[in-house]
Amino acid sequence: MAKGTATSFEHLTETELTALLDPDLMPRHIAVIMDGNGRWAELRGLPRMAGHTEGIKSVREIITLCRDLGIAALTIYAFSQENWKRPIPEINALMLLLEHYLQSEMDALIEKGARFRAIGRVNSLPPSALNWVRKVERETAHLDKLMLTVALSYGGRSEIVDAVRRLAQDCKDGKVQPDQIDEPLLESYLSTQGLPDPDLLIRTSGEARISNFLLWQLAYTEMFFTPTLWPDFRRREALIALLEYQQRERRFGQVPGAVYPPSGL
């Protein structure tokens, strides 16, 4: 396939974009920072919550796309620890929207074979929202077509701190010796344990930062930043992001064609 950019794909239809995808170069895991809901609403003279409500349609579409393309894992940044600093009425409305989403989408997730899991300091959520999070986790625990991970009350630094605390306690209890600690061991204490690191991070709304999201896991992730606001990021925009990803050469710090010594030397 010829090299291309997101701009060079703009004139193509969804069918044409899909036909260009290489099944052998599909990411295993996509992470998404869903940004721009409030701005989408403000540009239309609507309350900010209208943008969050519209953004749920984009969540549905990217879940369906991942399932259709055989992408194993999708992780979305739904509510950060910093979001607790927003006005209380907006926080309350977001928690109600979370409950509504879980109630209305649980059957659809089951139909799609999507296992739902929440990460972050989830116990900070209001009791009603937390109850729905746990219910959907239980009801979808047996599914394996797609691992849908939703970051709620999440911060990347806090995740690492929490992992180190658990590891330190296991060292104190004699379960782990300090000289056993390496990257794979620490990784097993993270909330994403068992998931491959994201191959592709998508961030909408024109911002070009990761905002304390998956700090450990994004070490070698390819990043796609788009000016499209999240409520407008639908299947077609996701296909363009995937095609852009497939143009990139992933070297993981190595030089193509070079000969390297055996691992560990």
Radius of gyration: 20 Å
Order of H and E elements: HEHHEHEHEHHEEH
Low-confidence stretches: none
- The strand order across the widest sheet is 3-4-2-1-5-6
Number of DSSP helices?
Answer: 8
**Residue-averaged pLDDT:** 93
Largest sheet: 6 strands, parallel
The level 1 CATH classification of the domain at 27-159 and 196-246 is Alpha Beta
CATH superfamily of the domain at 27-159 and 196-246: Decaprenyl diphosphate synthase-like
> In CATH terms, what is the architecture of the domain at 27-159 and 196-246?
3-Layer(aba) Sandwich
Helix percentage: 40-55%
- Any idea of the CATH topology of the domain at 27-159 and 196-246? Undecaprenyl pyrophosphate synthetase
| First-to-last CA distance | 37 Å
* Shape by Cα distribution: globular
Total strands: 6
Kindly name the structural category: alpha/beta
Strand content: 5-15%
